[in-house]
Prior knowledge:
Layout: E1 28-33, E2 42-47, E3 52-57, E4 60-66, E5 69-72, E6 78-81, E7 98-102, E8 105-109, E9 116-120, E10 123-128, E11 134-136, E12 145-147, E13 166-173, E14 176-185
Amino acid sequence: PTLNSDADDLLIENSTAGITLMGAANGGGMLAFGDVDDADVGRIFYYHVDNSMSFRTAGAEKFRILGNNLHLNGGSDARIQLNSGGAGANSTSNDTVHIRGDAESMKLMAAADGHYIFEVNGSEKFRIASNGNIGANISSPLDLLHLNDPNDDCVLNLDTAVANKNSLIKFSDPAAQGVGFIQYAHSDGSF
C-alpha cells in the first residue's frame, strides 16, 4: 500500500505492529507533539502511579482517563459533542447536540428544534419536546405535561412517604402563587 505522505517518516511493519514505551513504576510514558513555537503543545501521557492516561492540546490537559472515569478539563465549559446536528461538527455553538459541564452545573443540549428522547431498548418512553412540553409514552406532547398509557388507565400518582403530610395540586397565576388547591390530607383522609 502507498503510505500517507504526511506520515511516512517512521514505518513499523509486522503482522501485528506495535511500539512499547517502558517506564519506571513511579514514572510514565509520553508521546509529545510540538512545533517551532511550542515543543510541548500536545501530548499523550500514561502515568504508572495511578494508571491514568491524559491528553493535552494547545498546551493544557483537556481530558484524562482514570479507572472507569473520563475527566474533561475544559474550565467552565467542557463539552462532549455527540453529532453534527444544528450548527455542525466542531462548532462550540449552543446549537449542537452535546453534554456540557458548566461550572457546577451539567447541561444536556439539543440543537434548535431538537428534542430530548429517552428510550428503553429502542422504544421511546419519555420526551421533552423543543417547545418545552413533556410527554410520557407519547412522541408529540400537546401540553406542558402529557401522559399516555397505551395499555391501561392513565394514572398520575401523588405519593408522600410521610403519613401526616398532604398530596396536592396547586394552581397559581402571575399575580399570586397558590390561588387554588386540590388536596388530599393523609392525616384524616379528607379531600
